[in-house]
Please model this.
Amino acid sequence: MRYNFDKVIERANTNCVKYDLRKVVFGNPDVLPMWVADMDFETPDFAREAVMQRALHPVYGYHFKDEPYFKAIQGWLLRRHQWEVPLKWMSFVPGVVCGFNMAVLAFTKEGDEVIIQSPVYPPFHHAVSEHGRKLVYNRLKIGEKGYEMDFELLEQQTKTAKMLILCNPHNPVGRCWTREELQRLSDICLRNNVLVISDEIHCDLVLPGYKHTPYATLSEEVAQHCIVFHAASKTFNLAGLATSTAIIPNKAMRDEYVHYVEALEAHLGNIFGKVATQASMEQGDEWLGQLLDYVQGNIDYVADFLKNNLPKVKFFKPQATYMMWLDFNGYGLSEEELWRKMTQEAGLGFNRGSDFGQDGSGYFRINLACPRATVEEAMKRLLFFKQ
Ligand SMILES: Cc1ncc(COP(=O)(O)O)c(C=O)c1O
Model:
């Protein structure tokens, strides 16, 4: 079956963050919205069908996640990432962000140092600062071929830090970390007894030619010192269903974490997320293959367009995620001025770079999980910067 990713779907007036909060976020209700990380594509037919079937039953009471649900996730991780995950390692969490916040609360104390690698997804910053922990920035470096980790600095920082929150693959810079890079990071963290929380929500969105390394597959010892988060929500456009998975190989840590989650009554979740996730993990391979080809086409289109028309905008092509991280510092404008021009004059709703950390100043993150027609319109509007 061929899926149609060219189809434009009207999302306005559906309580949709990306479209219906434009006036609030950008001060302009007419920006072309290419910000928050969900997709403008239809959620795939098998996931919608599963939700519709369940919705037909007239009672929407409490439910639990059964063995077929976790087996579907287990099968997916094995098929897609060659990762064998025993069922007992997995537990439900309502969201990856909620999940890593609970990990920070369960495994660190107030005042403890937690490392993040900026520029990085804003909730990484908040998960540390909002709970009275101390943020330590292991800033990524820009090398010839793209963003790299600063291992020398990490070596120093892990002497006192308790935890590192890893974005694997990385949002917004689009790096699919190699096994060697992750190995080096894990050596440093193990040696210094730093617990690694690996957010792998984008792992299924690794683009053609790249391969995701689940952090816990580096070695048995590494597996015993990490928590991995996975979800079908980015991959299959299910973010509104709030359903994700914590994977914890270490028994003592797992018991402590699950106890924490249950004490907050955060372990139940919703029935629609359950059936949509299960259907996607069981049936999603073909759809995902086509999605990734389409997204790669959008990325190539933008890359060519920028090279040919706006050479002052610098970027590295992403290796994973449907986002591009664009550097507008070549225009020599202040961040405020860039933001005003982008939102009020060009009419574009991209994410503001500094929301990902100071090192994102002058950058924008653009979401390319949308029909080609939307990408073409965005590039047309971006020609405003040619003046
Ligand atoms: C790295 C990363 N983690 C987590 C999330 C959100 O996860 P959830 O909706 O499950 O909380 C996002 C969404 O953009 C993300 O980019």
Remarks:
- The mean pLDDT is 97.
- The longest strand covers residues 226-231.
